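During the no-cost extension, the postdoctoral fellow (Dr. R.K.) reprocessed legacy sequence entries with the updated structure-token encoder. One reprocessed record is reproduced below for audit purposes.
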Amino acid sequence: MNSVTDTTASWRTALAGRLPGGGVGKVLAILLGLYLIAAVVLGMFWSIAPAPFDVQDRVKSLAAAKGGDVVTGSVTTGTLIAVMETMLGKPGGYLHNDRFPPGLWLDNMPNWEYGVLIQVRDLSRALREVLSRSQSQSREDVDLSEMEPKFNFDSNSWILPSSESVYREGLRYARGYFRRLSDESNPEAQFYARADNLRYWLATVETRLGSLSQRLSASVGQRRVNTDLAGDAEATRSTQAPAEEMVQTPWTEIDDVFFEARGTAWALIHFLKAAELDFADVLRKKNAQVSLQQIIRELEGTQEPLWSPVILNGSGFGPLANHSLVMASYISRANAAIIDLRDLLSQG
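Re-encoded structure tokens follow.
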């Protein structure tokens, strides 16, 4: 009887070591805890935005590595390439389409990436439609006509194909256009630094910043008068809308909009610095260099360090800060300066 009891007790002891709470269970719990800690730390590291870079230095390095000289349009094209390379090659890589931790848990950096991506798409479209063509009837550049659709590929595609792989294909065509710009034996690749071309791209930037400013300002919620048809007595719309409407960004999306704006501004700073060099003669003739520099200065204010662990949504004049309204202030001033710059460029 004692032997049977001893045998049963030994079985129970052995079985307990293999069940949760036993030896194996404790090891698994420890490993899971270590994984979660590592994932949190890694996620915090991946959430650090890339530092700004010098556009001239990056373009010179690109020309040395990929071939070609720095000519008109090289800085803008090279900066477009450098911005995409930075977004795809930063710690953690491209996170917007991640399906596993820690990327799955993050939302600030993916929204930052989306803001960068929107500006890349807008500039690539301007390159394809206007900047590389002398007139509306001229042919599209062969590389740019392939590059632009690649950069407009679904930003959430995880596999077959992944967004990253398609964007890298787009970079291959962008590098091809960059090399061909300085190839005197093949003059089909061109970049036309004209005032009307710069105004075309800035018009898109203006609408993007205007939308971001409205979404950021709506963090506190406010009743707005509907001005959709203002200025034209004969204007009509598809369906009726209320004379006043309540506009408010959902509290779950406030940090998303904030970091999208931050990514947008980060990319725009580099693109505007590139335009300052490629369109130097145009800006000098219009006496508009200072205007462009002021826009860059306003956007640089959006990149100041964020000392709060979360995006606060205090009321406009309340005891707590409202980070969205601060960001909206910078974006709005930059947008107003772009409107003035476009008007200046339109003057003879």
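The CA atoms of residues 54 and 210 lie 27 Å apart. The two ends are 109 Å apart (CA to CA). The remaining legacy entries will be reprocessed before the final report is submitted.
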